[in-house]
Here is the input.
Amino acid sequence: MFFWLQEIFKNHNSNVVLSPFSVKILLTLIYEASDTSFGNAVSNTKRELSSVIQNENIELTRSYYKQLLESAQQDNKDFDLNIATNFFVDDFIEVINKYQQIANTHYHAMLEKVSYSNPTQAAVTINNWVSQHTNGRLREIVTPDSLEGAVITLVNVIYFKGLWTYPFPEVVNNVKPFYGTNGKPTVAQYMEQNGQFYYDHSADLGAKILRLPYRGDKLAMYFILPNPDSSINQVMDRINSGSLHQALWYMEENEVNVTIPKFKYDFSEQLNEPLQQIGIREIFSQNASLPLLARGRGARDEVRVSRIFQKAGITINEVGSEAYAATEIQLVNKFGSDGTQIFNANRPFIFFIEDETLGSMLFAGKIENPVF
Here is the structure.
């Protein structure tokens, strides 16, 4: 699943932030809807979606999400983490009871009826739900026009606000150059500190890696800074789940001088094409097989995905981070050992926020031009 991020990073010369977790949980729900087989035959829809299933074991995947979502629901004084999933279903569509039970039991997904014949009101209902679950950070993920032809809209939102375990000292007007991909400097507001952090200079990735933990012993943010003679795209070409895991395994606690720009931005992207590039194609086509999802006038086992869209945002400052994302899937009828290490992020870099208790990448992005 890392490859669709590579596609998006390459397609944008600007700042990017997305939630891989949010996309993955919705694709897993679509996978559950494709659960039909005749003897040993498996639909092509299900085969393509199997890449989102852990070790191609659906029980393992269900257990993973159930554990992660129950963990996210627990109140924690150190951070806010909210994950919610909803099906907005047209009045005449009946979501099959077995599927409703699977979605609710394992993925905490709820169902709400809307009338897509009144797209303005349907858009208000969906957007209000998204706003409520992201503390007002995301106010619009759908428009009335974007709901044309919709019968079911699946939405997942994820909101995170955390405090650094080791906050940065606040320095007023700490402005320094930031050297973009074109080599031309712009100015950015930086934050700096010295401390003991997990760090490695990875020869395999051609980049420095730094881990900044959040209070609560659950989440951390990782920064991947390409070497001066490398680029984000070159580093991304070297990254897969195996190489990234190995690079993180090599990290050791060092005294590190950390210099990172503050940044704050939103990003939105339609994900149909990047997902098709990695082989998930049939859910968007007339051949989509999602028999467990719904029945009713206009559905008749003829439901396909029309678009997968995500909107996300992130804020990083001296105190900590705030990140949020909503992903919508819309279905329509088919029709240190050497002394102090230096980590100076004054050029484009990659970042991700991980739930370290379950090894889940909640957010990922890149900074081409830090704006705050």
